[in-house]
Amino acid sequence: MPAVAVPQKTFISTETGDPIDYFEIDIKPVELQLYPGLNKTRLVGYNGQVPGPTFMMRQGREAIVRFVNHADRANSVHLHGSYSRAPFDGWADDITEPGQYKGKANIPTDYYYPNRQNARTLWYHDHAVDHTAENAYYGQAGFYILQDSQEDALGLPAGKYDLPLSLAAKRYNSDGSLWDPEANNEQVSVFGDVIHVNGQPWPYLEVEPRKYRLRFLNTGVSRSYQLYFEVDGALGQQITFTMIGSDAGLLLNPVPTETLFISVAERWEAIFDFSAYAGKNVTLRNSRKVAADNDYNSTDQVMRFKVGNTVTDNSNNLPNGLPSELRDVPFPTPRDPIDHTFKFERQNGKWEINGIVWSDVNQRVLARPQRGAIEKWELQNGGGGWSHPIHIHLVDLQMTSRTGGRGELMPYEKVALKDVMWLDTSETVDVIARYAPWDGIYMFHCHNLIHEDHEMLAAFNVTALSDLNYNDTTRFIDPMEPRYRAKPFQESDFQGRTSDFSDSAIAEKVAFFTSLDAYAHVEDAEEALSKYWATHTGGPEATAVTGTTSLTVTSTTSKTSTSSTSTSKSTTTTPSTLIITTSSKGNGGGKSSTTTT
Fold it and tell me: Which residues are in the Plastocyanin-like domain (predicted)?
């Protein structure tokens, strides 16, 4: 089980009175003995751990995380499943080179996370342009679990009976090193012939004969799974288990199932009852011929649970079972017309979205939903025998239909909110989402990381509402805003806890973030959006400048009266000037242009 991240310091927000935790994570190489009989394997992990340490967070308790890059290549960290503001979301081009951390000179910035959504299983992972697959493959991924009182009240299995299980398929060389997809110029997929759970090849875990909560996360590069459980000696007899959670937290209601489809970056949670299997082994298996994946000798096996004969703790063992309803899921208002159709396909040797790749800087903003608007998007697998897990940043989405391929939504998908939608071969999936609570520019892309690194990646711009009657203290439109970019550090300062690593600098950092008011008034923003859309109807998307990738706010909106104790927001605004600079990354050369709006 991954270690739990421990905050270096905890402060109290002067804006909310709530705690803010400050963490430091060191991205660095590590050698681990993984494959029996071979040499140690060189990996690169968060704090030198694979998976990285698990963040156990409470709703309403914000976090500041400094990721210090002692690795081999650039990184960008995405907290997957969080509605983080755009500069802290892990934009692909917002990279941190080795010997750097995120934060300009004299600006005490790092990654700043809200932790204000409902309880859910998030994860943090690399998102650096052109190198996400390489970084994630070698270990840059970890759990980030958000808890709240509503979920606590259900009495679900907790502590050692709540198991985070990350899946990844990899390939080894004969000397024990990992087969390197980047060095081998892999441009299609890395399915891997060795299945890992929490970094271990085909592991086992000793469990007690009682109920467990299993949090499945697919951290792999390309492989998808159709999982099922089987007790030894009962070949072919699949065991029923109960789905309770998805990417965005608890389902509407529990859903019994015998199989679970899970593609790259998806999270699914289940309750499994081992009580009937005391003294036996239960094996988690994977079906053959899943999606477009290549099968190998043992990719039909995932891990084994060795069930003991004694229960040491019956707390949170759900003696009365699960309730018929787990939570009131905030599904978006139904919408019939399709606002956008996006086709994901390989054309002309490129992985494209509607014929666009990431280096098409002036074309890569493909949608401009208004802040708080509900839109329906159609996601199409363009064919060619591939499958595509599609991740849309910022929002939780409802899958409303699947055609082609499997031909229908899975029962557990029907009662879930998601942020990754798996398009199996020949499938089309419709999704509805409310584009809130923030405005700003965010990404959407295929989460087969080979496809992503080869530019199956685009952006959408949640556009501001000029008559919203709400005023953000600070605008976070631009994911590349200069003051939040990376800066170098001196190793002596890092080791000696001096300069930017001193206690006084960290305290200054927290005060700076508090002053931004990035998340503290999300309820006010949501209330303003609710009132706005109660009297407005969706129409054409707001006008925006094509190709915006970098917007620098040179004069900001002002507020007439606020204080650290205020609970409402002023609505007086002054005009803003946005200088929009486009720049390319990856394979696109060096374009630039400037437009003022």
Answer: 39-150, 333-463
